[in-house]
Amino acid sequence: MKNLFKLFQKSNYRNLFLATLTSQMGSVIGMTAFMFYLLDRFSEQPAYATITELMYSLPTLAVFFLVGVLADKMDRQKIAANCDWISSILSIVLLGAVYIGWMPLIFTILFVRSAISKFFGPAETSLVQGVLSKDEYASAAGLNQMTQSMFNLFGSAIGAIIYWNLGLFGAIILDAVTFAASALFIRACKISEDVRLPNGAHKFKELKVKAVLVDFKAGMTYILGHKLLLTLISGFFFFGIVNGGLSVMPAFILKYKLAPETYEQIMVMLSIVFGIGILVGSVVASIVANKLKLRLMLVIGLIVSGSFIATQALVSEIYALFILNAIVALFLPFINIAIGGWLPSIVNPKMMGRVQGWISPLMMLSHSTTLGIIALTFQKSLTIEALFWIVGGCLTVVGVFFALLLPRFDEEDPDQAGEDVPIKETKEIEYA
């Protein structure tokens, strides 16, 4: 805990941390309110709630080849700040679309805003890597996990309260404000040029299509040449399935099985319990990270979380759902902190954007596919019980897969090996 608070005293990291907090908190609140709005207004069409989730995830597949390259070639600080400013403006535009009430326009704006926000992650992650030392990565991952617990603890609850009292408009306005606040935090950072521009300065007009594609391919070559990194990233495909399912499963099991009349209120309580579990699990995992190997933490988190998610398929009482969710919440931070502390230490800073550029589309491909299948098959051929079996099974399978492969590759390719993996430069490309 002492290390966590020390880390937070660093002004650059503190501003980046607060930027992520405000940006994502607003998104969680807005998305929660939007889901309640759609379930209320279109209760006979649960596909709308799933389509909304798709509008947050599908854009990754449209811009995935650009986000990592831009984070490695352009000013990372400007990219992160501009993403927030544009997202704030689009939130205001979304207000008009909701007032008109035309769903295709609403979904289009959500799609575009989400596409812009996808450029934020790789740029912000690369900045964090640059302002911290390697022995601080695990502590930073712990703080990030605590941030996530804040989203789970307060985001859904605040989103529901704002929706009940101020309506969807209030939640969207809050979205716009938080995006703007995030941009101001990013602008307040004083980050050296070698962190903002690790590959030198480039102008946007210099990034021609051929150059972008070659840089994107260089990221793939780098990953393929790094067995440990490749093994870790392969698991992200299954994480996408899990994220896609978990984004709608709690609301669906409450509305369509356990509490059709009171699902909104119970969903708020469930999110609070889940958030408290994540917060406690984050503290425990942060302490454990200094005593256990990160690969062991990862495997434990995956297998335990997956087993208890699958068990929720058997639930017939609300209290049992609360207990199982609390257990899952305690062990999910083991996964996030292990990966968050491990990846930066094995990836060369010059390649972090392009590596992140491959992780996001891989996850979102499976995430979006999962949501698409749910939208088409839920309540027809796919039951809520089957959803929990599939999602829990995916986490457990990945845990076993990692348990078998990670020890061997970790010994062959120690933590610092990422810097020794050749980086394919793109000097053959004429940018001017």
TrEMBL record:
Name the segments for region: Disordered: 412-432
User: Sorted alphabetically, which CDD domains does this protein's record hold?
Assistant: MFS_MefA_like
The reply on keyword Nucleotide-binding is: no
Q: What is its main location?
A: membrane
Check the record and name the SUPFAM superfamilies matching this protein: MFS general substrate transporter (SSF103473)
UniProt keyword list: Cell membrane, Membrane, Transmembrane, Transmembrane helix, Transport
Q: What span is annotated as the signal peptide, if there is one? A: none
Gene Ontology cellular-component terms for this entry are:
plasma membrane
A Pfam family reported for this protein in Swiss-Prot or TrEMBL: MFS_1
Ranges of compositional bias, category Basic and acidic residues = 421-432
| Membrane topology value | Multi-pass membrane protein
Residues spanning the membrane: 16-39, 54-71, 92-112, 161-186, 228-254, 266-289, 296-315, 321-343, 355-374, 386-406
Subcellular localization, as worded in the UniProt entry: Cell membrane
What Gene Ontology molecular-function terms does this entry list?
Answer: transmembrane transporter activity
Name by which UniProt lists this protein: MFS family permease
